[in-house]
UniProtKB/TrEMBL annotation:
It comes from the Eukaryota. This is Uncharacterized protein. Keywords: Membrane, Transmembrane, Transmembrane helix. The chain crosses the membrane at residues 397-423, 435-454, 460-477.
Length: 498
């Protein structure tokens, strides 16, 4: 079955706008949007989960935080802002990051990359972004998968076993019993496609199943990766959820509709067989054999540029021999482009081969091998600092300052009422009430002196007792001289404000 190659109209690239959020209007808009979105994320984990800073570089994952990222992405995908770059500020704010460092970055790619690098893990469905604009998708670099901002395509929810694990400057694709039910990874083991075709048929040598693959590369510009020199193919299929598209050429009523999936094309740049095997910890019983592979210490001193250079071993289309000769290993890859993959409607996977393009042989990634996705080195500081939780930020000093500030605010209001009493009804007051109002104004004038020179709790208690005593004297004087019925609103406001 064939799927039509997407036209340029469906893949328009929005301008990489430099957001000018420094202006008052833009900041007010972002604040308003963030406040409205925050109302929709009032859940138990959305308000409390923060990325674990201690886990950066250690490969530890915060699954609930990745789920929060998916929720924020999917909500923003339905909205539009005046300036697209403001989406990063809103996203970072909802994720609990301090947005000030992000606002100093001018490019959309840098902002999104900074947010993703500040997380311990990344939802794998980001790699299957068919519609959204990506960072220079036709250039020769390692961040071709990087989205500029949330697109209309929603992300699928992940878990500890299906999220990409961020370790150093690499992204490790999961390969465990759970992830293999969500994402299928095939490695082309035969000769490479000499023409870098836009459509080809993928034949699984282990089961005989065939998949019709459509490559999504932007039109109108030569793609630097449209050459076999980049490396052999590695295809990932997102099995859940399905796209639900009807392939081109299918006639309704003549057979079941083929299943369609979003996919991603990786290019193998290096085969690593000197690896260490690390097992996950604190997992449920059925996942106790899940593991991850880390390059051995012999490669630890190798810089990123050297590690990504192609080596002749197994990259001539003979990757199957690497799988048979080595019990475990790593395929270091770079992201090429998104795919659309269709197969038969039943478990047999029978599907008509592509009418154009070659038929490439492939096999599923062995359970003891792993795929690593390389990234470009960052040109900005990361990770983003997180906003402290309210309980963490409320220290004894800050609590005292908060109480003092509130007390000062109330005292200022009470002083204003006392001034109003002096201006409007002072001549009608009894002598005791006049003395109480004047004494209270004198105490308020010494408020700053008391706060900074005598900040002790005991002094504050004595100070409050004096204020209460003066208000009590004023109340007694007004009631005894005029009666409760003749006291006006200004009297009651002055009394209640204390």
């Amino acid at each position: 079955m064939m799927l039509r190659k997407p036209g340029s109209g469906a893949r328009q690239q929005l301008l990489n706008t430099n957001s000018t959020t420094g202006s008052d209007i833009s900041i007010s808009m972002v604040t308003s949007l963030t406040r409205s979105l925050s109302q929709e994320f009032r859940s138990a984990f959305a308000n409390g989960i923060k990325p674990s800073r201690a886990a950066m570089g250690a490969g530890k994952l915060a699954p609930d935080f990745c789920t929060l990222f998916v929720q924020v992405w999917n909500e923003l995908s339905k909205r539009a802002t005046t300036v697209p770059g403001d989406m990063h500020i809103i996203m970072a704010s909802l994720l609990g990051f301090n947005t000030e460092p992000l606002m100093r970055l001018t490019k959309s790619a840098e902002r999104m990359s900074c947010i993703l690098r500040s997380m311990d893990g990344i939802p794998m469905s980001l790699l299957f972004n068919l519609d959204g604009p990506r960072h220079n998708p036709t250039r020769d670099h390692r961040d071709r998968w990087l989205p500029l901002y949330p697109s209309r395509q929603k992300l699928a929810f992940g878990s500890t076993f299906t999220n990409l694990r961020s370790i150093k400057d690499d992204l490790y694709l999961p390969n465990n019993t759970v992830s293999r039910r969500k994402v299928a990874v095939f490695v082309c083991t035969g000769e490479v496609d000499p023409f870098s075709s836009c459509t080809f048929t993928l034949r699984d040598t282990s089961s005989g199943e065939q998949y019709s693959v459509v490559v999504h590369r932007p039109e109108g510009e030569m793609d630097a990766f449209a050459t076999p020199d980049i490396g052999p193919y590695c295809v990932a299929l997102q099995l859940e959820p399905e796209l639900g598209n009807t392939p081109e050429g299918h006639i309704v009523g003549l057979g079941a509709v083929p299943r369609t999936f979003a996919g991603a094309l990786f290019r193998v740049r290096r085969v690593v067989t000197n690896v260490r095997k690390l097992y996950y910890h604190k997992l449920e019983a059925e996942y106790e054999n899940s593991f991850e592979l880390i390059e051995d210490e012999a490669y630890g001193h190798t810089d990123l540029e050297t590690a990504s250079k192609r080596t002749p071993n197994y990259l001539d289309g003979n990757l199957a021999s690497a799988f048979s000769q080595h019990p475990r290993g790593i395929l270091r890859t770079v992201y090429d482009c998104p795919l659309t993959v269709s197969c038969g409607p039943n478990s047999s996977g029978a599907c008509s081969p592509a009418k154009e393009g070659p038929t490439l042989t492939a096999q599923p990634l062995p359970e003891t091998w792993q795929v690593v996705l390389e990234r470009e080195p960052p040109t900005y500081p990361f990770p983003l600092p997180s906003r402290p939780h309210f309980a963490e930020a409320m220290t004894p000093v800050s609590a005292y300052l908060t109480v003092t500030a509130l007390d000062g605010l109330v005292a200022s209001g009470c002083a204003g009422l006392a001034i109003a009493i002096c201006a409007t009804m002072f001549p009608r007051l009894a002598l005791l009430a006049k003395a109480a109002v004047v004494a209270k104004l004198l105490l308020h004038s010494l408020f700053l002196i008391q706060m900074f020179l005598f900040p002790g709790v005991e002094v504050r208690l004595i100070w409050d007792v004096l204020h209460l005593a003066l208000v009590a004297l004023y109340t007694f004087s007004r009631i005894s001289s005029t009666g409760v019925a003749r006291m006006d609103a200004l009297d009651w406001s002055f009394i209640a404000n204390e």
